[in-house]
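Worked Example 4.2. Read the sequence first, then its structure tokens.
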Amino acid sequence: MSDIHDGIEDHTPHKPRKGIYVLPNLFTLAALFGGFYAIVMAMNDRFDMAAIGIFCAMVLDSLDGRVARMTNTQSAFGEQMDSLADMVSFGAAPALISYEWALKGIGRWGWVAAFVYCACAALRLARFNVNTAVVDRRFFQGLPSPAAAALVVGFIWLVNDMGYVGSDVVWFMFALCLYAGLTMVTNLPFYSFKDLQMKRSVPFAVIVLLVLVIAAINIEPHFMLMIVFAVYGFSGYFLYAWRRAKGLQTSVISTSTDEPDEQGLHK
């Protein structure tokens, strides 16, 4: 009987082995390293390098999702990994950097402000994950965590490069952390730029303008980046006021949903 069974081919279907896509997760891990590097640099009083680490993490974070879509390697694991990396790079890292740079000089008020920022980043990322299917893709619901991190560390980079220390602007840093953190958990609409068509032809003048912008950033990167993210960091309030004045829907929730049950999103 054993000979008979040995001669019979096994036609039992085998489930494909689940694995982890390497390429997009390499970008995510590199972004995570940028946040970790920023924390280490802040511990060594290299706040300029800490800011550069956060900005590098921002670039890498913007690439991992695009790489996954281009190579058709999206996965639930990658989404979770991206959120955890964002929490480190754009939640914990900016809070710790701001605390080390200035906030620890005002005692408990300092760590409270840093914690509020960190907690709001966690809440914003959790809400983003559960509301992905119902939010208008043209807008973010609240200030995105990378932009909030850029606002905080960009200010530190700029002021530090001007020769000032954290104690000179400690209360402004306190207010900025609270502003960035609380703005992340508002329902304000922030333009996402996801509806821009990169394959669409544009006038030649647009290319020239982009060259000038890149050149300006290269001349004074800390100053120009701070200006860009400061404008974006306040844009949600202006966009909300403009849409309300025009009688347009101010909520970015495009359809109703049962979970999560958040009252007042369409007001």
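Now turn to a second chain, presented in exactly the same format:
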Amino acid sequence: MMQGKTVKGKGKTMSIYQHKILDASEIDRILTRITHEILEKHRGTENLAFIGIQTRGVYLAKRIRSEIHKIEGVRIPTGDMDITLYRDDWTRISHNPIVQTTEIAFSVDGKQIILVDDVLFTGRTIRAALDALIDFGRPDRIELAVLVDRGHRELPIQADYAGKFVETRRSETVNVLLSEHDGADEVVIEKLKD
């Protein structure tokens, strides 16, 4: 269902149309499926660790960790990573970027690291995350799990675990809302119209 709202910007009024593509129960099902795919591919949890990419990737990584704990009874090491200053386009985003915390309280050496993010788009965020991660050590393997893959790749990067593939236009925005940060769980596509 498409919903609309009106906003003012740069001296003119524009409409934003939103289309919900995932609700809370669908997000839960996707994370459960991704959890089982990870456990099946890795044949358990040995040397497994998660690193969530700020902001919403952090919460998704913690949810997957929680699912694994329910199934296997094991607590997987999980860290948080901010990649802002590793991006090749950070000066285009903002001259005063907001840098969040990076907290990896375990050695990544020899680990099977799964980077977790909310949306895979151009691949630039993941490339920056790979650069940042290598500064922490030398994992045996790095994989990628994302809730939504929206295409439009600019770099040869693909997710090992993807929740939903969505065809989008470059002009559209895919917004992931999670209860830990936004008060609700849903994924919406937004399109701006004059």
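Notes for the reader: Strands lie at 2-9, 12-22, 48-53, 78-81, 112-120, 141-149, 161-165, 173-177, 186-193. Residues 24-171 form a domain with the Rossmann fold fold (CATH 3.40.50.2020).
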